[in-house]
Amino acid sequence: MLPVASLTHLLLVSSVLLLLFVSNLRAEPVVIDTHSARGRITVADRNYEVGEEVLAEAASLVWPANSDSSFVLKFLEGGEEEREAILQLAHLPTDAKTERIARLRAAAEEVYDSMRERMEAAGWEEEDVHRLLIIKDTNCFPFYGRRASGYEEGTSVGADRLALFPRCAKVNHSCRPNVMFSSQTEDGKLRLIAMRRIERGEEVTFSYLGEDGDVMSREERRERMRGKDFLCSCARCEGVDDVRGIRCPACGIIRYPLPETAAKEEEEAGSAGGVVEREKWTACRCEGEGGGDSVRDLVEWEEEAGRRMLQFLGKCRDFDRQLPDPRELEEMVKEAQGKLSPSHFLVAQGQELLAKVWSSYAHRMEKREDFVAPFLLSSRDCRGRAARSFFLAIRVREELEEKWEEGRECSKEETGVNSKRGGEEGGGRREGGERAVFSCTRLAFSAAENLMRSEMKEWREEAEDVTRYVKMMKRRYGEDDEDVRKIERFVNELIV
C-alpha cells in the first residue's frame, strides 16, 4: 500500500496532467465536422470577437508564383507526412471536363517532360503531376512571409510567392464570410482573423474573392468562381442580389433582382401569354403602371455604365500612357448614385477605383518633377480627393454590413433617401459614431494615409471617421505598428 504522501503526490501529478490535457483540447481553436449538404466544414470551438485571431498556421510548402515546376520539386523534397497532408486536400478529379482541368493537364505535361528523370526515379506518372497541380490550384494562398506595412497592404501590393496551408485550406468559401486571411505577418504564418463575432459551433468561412467580393454582383462573383470550377450556393448567392439595387424613377423605391428560384416561380406563374423578362425584380409602388419599362431602361443604363467602367479600368492598367481622367469616372459614379441604389456595386467599385486613381496621380506628382497630369490640381489636392473617395467607399460597405447584420433582405420599401445614411453622395455619416466595420479597415487606413499627405487641416469630420477605425487598425496591423500610431496622432491633433 502506498504511503499517504506518495498517494497525494500521485493524485496531484495526475490532476496536473489532466488539466494540461484538457487545456490542450480547449486550445484547439477550430474542429473539422461534417454537414449533410456542405460536406466537410470547419467549426469554431469557442466564441470569437471581431479582430481576434481564429487560427494561425505555418506554410507546408512555399514556391515562386507562376512556377509549377518549383512547386512539384518542393513537394517531392518534403517529408512523407507533409506530402500525405497535401494529397488529402480537396480537388476535382483529373478527368473533369472543364477548361481549368484541361489547362492544368497541359501544364502537367510540360512539367513532367522537363523533369522526366526525376519523375521516373520517384515512380511518378504524368497523371500524378496533373492531380498535384489541381490540388495546388484549388488550395494555394498568396504568400508574403513578412510584415508588410499597413499602407503597403492597403494599396494591394501583390505577393510574388504562393503557399499551401493544409489546415486553413479546409475552410470553406462564403460570399458572406466571418474571417479574413493574411500571410503578411512577422512569422510568415497564415492567420485567420474574425471579421465579425463568431459563436461557438458556427462554421468558419472566408471568401475566395477576398474583401473585394463584398461589393461584387452575384454574376461577377459567379464569373470569378467559374475559373475555380466552383458554384457558390451560400445564403447571399441564394438571396436577392444586394449590390444591384436600382431606383424606380416614379416612386423612388429601390428594387433588387430576385433569387433565381423565386424569379423562376414568378415567371412560371405569369408566363401564359406574357413576355418573359430576363430577370425578375422586387416590387415597387408603381409596378404595373410602367414600372417594368423603367426597370428595363435602368438595367440597360447599368450595363452601359459597367462597360464604361471596364474601359476606364483598362486605361488604368496602362496608366502612364493612357493617363485616365478621374473626372470622367466621377461623373459616371455621381449619375449612378442618382439612378441606382446607394450601395450598388458600380458606386462602391467606382469610389474605390477613383480613390486609387487620385492616389496614383498624387504619387507620380510627388516622385516625378516632369510628370504632367491632365488637370490643374496639386498632389495635395489629389490626396484630398483620394481620401474623400475612400471615405465614400467605406460608407457603401458600412451600409451593406448594416443590412447583413440586421439579417434582413434588401427592403422593397428602401428608397435610399429615407434611410439612416441616405443622401446624394450615396450615404451620409453614421449616426452617433457607431462602431467600425472590420472589412473597411484597409480602406480606412488608405484614407488616413492620403488625408495626412494632403496636409489639409479642415478635415475634422473625416478625422472622426478615421478615429472609429484606429482600434480595428491596431487589431489588423498590430498594436505597435508605427504607421497606425502615426495615424492615431494625426487624427487626434485634428479633432482637438
Automatic annotation (TrEMBL):
Keyword entries, A-Z: Signal
SUPFAM superfamilies the UniProt entry points to: SET domain
Domain SET: 28-209
Residues making up the signal peptide according to the UniProt record: 1-27
Any one Pfam family match given in the protein's UniProt record, by short name: SET
InterPro entries hit by this protein: SET_dom (IPR001214), SET_dom_sf (IPR046341), SET_domain_protein (IPR053185)
Region (Disordered): 408-432
Entry protein name: SET domain-containing protein
